[in-house]
Design brief:
Elements: H1 9-18, H2 43-76, H3 93-101, H4 105-133, H5 137-158
Helix pairs in contact: 2-4, 3-4, 4-5
Length: 161
């Protein structure tokens, strides 16, 4: 059961005072009633969410496709899965690049993983740009700290393996 709200006399009086009575003889026109100015939407905030969503989706889709290509290459090369080289993946960007030039499946898979790791970094960088365009200094600083922590984690994590 829905309870009906009863307006107090003061509220009814305030509403009647704000809204002019409409005569029954003439149809209501566009200029009748209180004028409401359209609010200016913040397109940057809306676009920011869309762009960030596209970055995240695109990064995952592209990296998944690259990893799948690497897996197909590993299946196509005869004897590739049976050899000990299957477990050997490139450890540096130079190794990945040289492996890509010769079509090594492990390098293609490593490229897909690198793209997957780069996705959140690109997302945070896009957030910094969006907050800067909105002149929101507080979030620019916070997001920059997050980016520095991400990059620091990548640099420090490199030597831990």
């Amino acid at each position: 059961m829905i309870k009906e709200k009863v307006l107090s006399k003061r509220a009814v009086f305030a509403l009647n005072k704000q809204m002019p009575a409409v005569e029954a003889e003439r149809p209501m026109k566009q200029h009748d009633g209180p004028s409401i100015q359209p609010t200016k939407q913040r397109h940057t905030a809306f676009s920011m969410n869309e762009v960030i969503g596209w970055i995240l989706q695109g990064g995952v889709i592209i990296s998944s496709a690259v990893i799948c290509v690497g897996l197909v290459l590993a299946l196509i090369h005869p004897g590739q899965l049976a050899s000990k080289q299957t477990l050997v993946f490139p450890h540096t960007l130079a190794d990945v690049w040289s492996g890509l030039l010769v079509g090594q499946p492990q390098s293609v898979i490593a490229l897909g993983l690198l793209l997957l790791l780069a996705t959140p970094v690109i997302r945070v960088t896009a957030s910094i740009v969006a907050f800067a365009l909105e002149h929101d200094r507080r979030y620019v600083v916070i997001t920059t700290v997050v980016l520095l922590v991400l990059l620091l984690g990548f640099l420090l994590g490199k030597g831990a393996g």
